[in-house]
Design a protein that fits this description.
The structure is a single chain. Helix content is about 45%, strand content about 15%. It is α/β, with parallel strands linked by helices and about 250 residues long. Strands 1-2-3-4-5-6-7-8 form an eight-stranded parallel β-barrel, surrounded by seven helices. Helix 2 links the parallel strand 2 (about 35-40) and strand 3 (about 60-65). Helix 1 (about 15-30) runs parallel beside helix 2 (about 45-55), helix 5 (about 105-120) packs across helix 7 (about 140-150) and helix 11 packs parallel to helix 12. It starts with a strand and ends in a 5-residue tail after the last helix. Bound molecules: 2-phosphoglycolic acid. 2-phosphoglycolic acid binds near residues 232, 235 and 236.
């Protein structure tokens, strides 16, 4: 059984005081030992403060990015060990905003993935097509290429510790959510790709989140699909009520 996993990606939002307040509001309503795995991913400068709030609660904490080198002259970057030191448990890798705006490639994502796995953190590896790619019928090719490149060189055992987030770029922050059929089709195809690479048993254990304009009113339909194991939530994770409304959409 795949444990449903809902993660909030706060992106480049919130002051420190706002981040602390939001973490407190989320944690206050999530009991420890919730059936759904829940995490929030604050901006890096708030990780320390938010980790302190979430310690011992049922809400985990993730970073939005990391660098693959262990230390050294890499101005502006953060290492896996630094995140571990703060109590961080997850790292989002290859978000489409990083791929498109910051120029991250599958090779970068792959190098980071190896570092994150070696450091014992749980990676959330994002893949997804643009609108042009979908219109040109290339969705599955793009997902295949991104999965193959991003997950290169990892073992089946390591793959079992990876979370995938399928996030169609055209659905991110646009309010234009993929239909449950559109999302399920890609999730099922992605799971087949994972099975071809890592074997059926491992593929059956890998959580694949959907991301892109998930809101409390569309979450239940998406999350009821057989291959959708959770959500990576942007905008709607910035308010405790809407984030928890999405968690409530998981049918247990
Ligand atoms: P959104 O963002 O929920 O605001 O569309 C999702 C994401 O980028 O992870």
């Amino acid at each position: 059984m795949r444990r449903p996993f809902i993660a909030g990606n706060w992106k480049m939002n919130l002051t420190k005081a706002e981040a602390i307040a939001l973490a407190q509001a989320v944690a206050a309503k999530v009991g420890a030992g919730h059936a759904v795995e829940i995490a929030v991913c604050p901006p890096a400068v708030h990780l320390d403060a938010v980790a302190a709030v979430l310690k011992g609660t049922g809400v985990g904490i993730g970073a939005q990015n990391v660098y693959f080198q262990p230390n050294g002259a890499f101005t502006g970057e953060l290492s896996v060990a630094m995140l571990v030191d703060l109590g961080v448990q997850y790292v989002i890798l290859g978000h489409s905003e990083r791929r498109r705006i910051m120029g991250e490639t599958n090779e970068h994502v792959n190098a980071k993935l190896h570092a994150v796995l070696a450091g014992g953190l749980t990676p959330i590896v994002c893949v997804g097509e643009t609108l042009d790619e979908r219109t040109a019928n290339k969705t599955e090719d793009i997902v295949q290429e991104q999965l193959a490149g991003s997950l290169a060189g990892i073992t089946a055992e390591q793959a079992g510790r990876v979370v995938i987030a399928y996030e169609p770029v055209w659905a991110i922050g646009t309010g234009q959510v993929a239909t449950k059929e559109q999302a399920e089709e890609v999730h099922a195809a992605a799971r087949k790709m994972l099975a071809a690479r890592f074997g059926e048993t491992t593929a059956a254990s890998i959580r694949i989140q959907y991301g892109g304009s998930v809101k409390p009113d569309n979450a239940a339909d998406l999350l009821a699909q057989p291959n959708i194991d959770g959500a990576l939530v942007g905008g709607a994770s910035l308010k405790a009520d809407s984030f928890l409304g999405i968690v409530a959409g998981v049918k247990l």
